[in-house]
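ugh ok fine here u go
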Amino acid sequence: MRAKSRPLSVVVVQFPISLDIGENQDTMLSIVAESKTSELVVFPEGAVSGYDSDPAFLDSVAYHEIDEAFQELQNEVRKRKSHLIFGSCLYEGGEWYNAGLYFSHNAAPFIYRKINLATNERGYFRAGDRLPVFTINMDEFAIVAGVQLCREIRFPEQWQYLARSGAEILVYLTNAIDGDSREASVWRSHLVSRAAENQRFVISANNAHEQQKCPTMIVAPDGTIVAETMSADVAMLRAQIDASQISNWYLDQARTDVVKVISNAT
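structure:
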């Protein structure tokens, strides 16, 4: 019997992220203000705080401005009765984390702290130690989601862990703008693989930049591209996805007697 439809309207946004928190906040608020009831809006890694490949930029980041931006975004999401996923540097307990956050009008905030830090991030950011999932509550159903950040696209076992933990959509936030733009085909292939091998939707948001090397895109559970863009300009991809399309067909055939990814480990 075919699974009951569970549609979710998604808006994936890329914009030129700066190191000016107020400027980033204004851009994000203007876009969230146009969101529809129950819509999920996704922004890239470092969208609020800004991000730079040289982590010394953290020395100039005013974390109280980040907290104020968080509050403004949360207020707008409640007002619009929508859902929001975005990236930001996060200051907690005297340490910085590279984080992905979820705000909603009907759930407590969720935070994912990046567990697999880039080489240049080490010594500046503290790594997280968990791969949690969270629930997006719609009026008549719920959808479970997980978040990964930037270089974590290279570690498929983390994505499988999230899928086995119940994630139905995998949200990927990145700030991949340095290096050779020809690398884009590799990053694109990774996104397609993460979707198809787990039979999950993958929603990817990257910084808009002339050297952008990873697409902003939506990939279906069968690996087909729902929507995609790469440019230095502000862009919004709007699509309706259906969580009933996900499957455990391949996950259930994995040779767990040989290799096993353990989910929900304590």
